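Bench log, entry 3. Co-assembly request; chain sequences pasted below exactly as received.
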Amino acid sequence: MNNEGSIVYVVDDDASICRALSLLLSSNGYKVETFTRAADFLAFKHTKVPSCLILDIRLPNINGFALQEIMAQRGIITPIIFISGHGDIPMSVKAMRAGAIDFLPKPFTDKKLFDAITLALSRSKVQNKKQAEIAKIKKCIETLSPRELEVFQFVAQGMMNKNIASKRGTSLQTIKVHRGRVMQKMQAKTVTELIGFAKKAGLTSSSD
Amino acid sequence: MKKEIVKRKPGKAKELLLKNVTRNNLEKKIREQSDELATRSGQLKRGADREKLGADRERVSENKILKQKKELNSRSGQLKEGADREKLAEEQIHIRTKAMESTFDGIFVIDAKQSDYPIIYANPSFLHLTGYSKNEVIGKNYFLLYGSDADLRIYEEIKQTLLQGRSFHGEMMHFKKNGEKFWSLLRITLVRDKNGIVTHYVGNKTDTTLMKQRDSEIKEQREELLHVTRVGKLAEFVSSLAHEISQPLTAILSYAQAAQRMLKDREPQLQEILQYIINDDQRASEVIRRLRYLLKKTKPAFESISINSLINDTTTLIMPDIAARDKAIKFDFITNPPSIMGDRIQLQQVLLNLISNSLEAMEGSKLSHEMLIRTSLKDNETILVQVRDTGCGIPEENMKKLFTHFFTSKPDGLGMGLSISRSIVEAHGGRLDAENNPDRGATFYFTLPIIKKDKK
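Structure output for the full assembly:
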């Protein structure tokens, strides 16, 4: 199994569980970081490698669900596997609805845990890739001049060159020049790709 | 005077004689005249007297008439007053009769001077209550109306009490003419004449069937709630026990499986031992899982609830407790509260727990008399319920532990009440918390989400 470079975080207020999971996970080649408090996890400097979080629901002060919310607010996209000693169904439903990978009632076997982690890490990889792509697009957007950005937005909305020209009160030729520069700076090969970039960067989300 | 004149002038006797005669005559005349005058004056005086008498008499009779007139006046006044009084008395009798006739209580009067103690009056409510007609009641002995199913011991008790000259007061089962049972509060009082002899018995019968029913309903509800609370406490107890046990079981399982992985293909004997540990760990987990399943049978029944009526219903259940402790609850309700979704019994449990905690906090202090339950809108999506007491408040060091399992400040407490309450409120999508009031006592408050209208 290739688990190189991935990190599994564990947050559980029971120190023995942290230690046991740490031993179990590292025996399977995962890099593990354990925390007994949610605040400690939040204070930890996260790297951009694929990761997942094994999170106990009942925690002092900030509980599992609250941590999940804070992570969403802060843009920490690490997938979560909830674990709980209270095996109640409504809780698991709530956890899954909030976007958790899985909910494992304690105690759980290594197989169930590893299955969940495998799924979580693969999702993390996809998410990381997406994040990286968005970051790259945003970086490209930063290189655009204000006028180019404007043209980019019009194009992203699906407007024809002549429409943009009349709207901007400039010649068609000028718009064509701007557009060419946008394609070049955004490293887009086709208009479709360019529009895709705009969507990923969230440029068109509010204009439809 | 005549002699002196004679002595002095004897020479002139004739003249004197003549003179004397004349004088005598004159004198006589004068005398006569004077007599007449006197008589006349007497007459006059008499007449005047008479006149005066008459006037006096007249005055007397006038007085008399005046007096008589006054007397007459006063007598006629008295008569009029008498008539007025009679009219008033009549009116009062009318009102009293009306009152007797229209009251819900059954009223009857027994003649105590007749040997068979007949009923001589019974109001319509009495007839309605017993199901007998007027003819079947008047002139009959009261006890004959009890029906053959009645308890004879009660007859005796009533009879003995009355014969000893005391009033009777008691609640008992009665039977209507058609045999239908009803609960009745019966009071019989004695009416005495001037000499203290008992002349009548007045009876007063109140139908308490509805009250009895309501009482027993409330009692039933209380018992049901107590049962649910007990079961809830047990469930919560087991659930927290299960949690406490599953924590080390989780660790043990993971340790053993980690060790297995670390050994890989080495040490088959150790591998086997590790497998036994894993198996037994899972056996223990299974026991806990089954225990949890058993207790999860009582699923919460969610329904649409008006929070104000839920609070009203709940406080009705413990009003007797509150009254017995000489405390009072005030309410400050939001008008037309939006409905919430919840399990009625579970939420009642939460309220009861908070109210009884408040009562206990207010125990033994005269300053702590009143508690307040307030409902309000926290925001467009949430209802806020506050239970505010004027008790001893919560010591700062207990604040954090308040809602944890097994924490209690009471000598005989289990420490489950607030932790159960919090898990119930959380299961309803709300929050339960507490704070000390700036002046006195503490406020426990919880939120519940409002049913969204578009979901309907």
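The interface with chain B takes residues 14, 16-17, 19-21, 23-24, 27-28, 58, 83, 85-88, 90, 105-110 of chain A (CB under 8 Å). The first strand of chain A starts at residue 7 and ends at 11.
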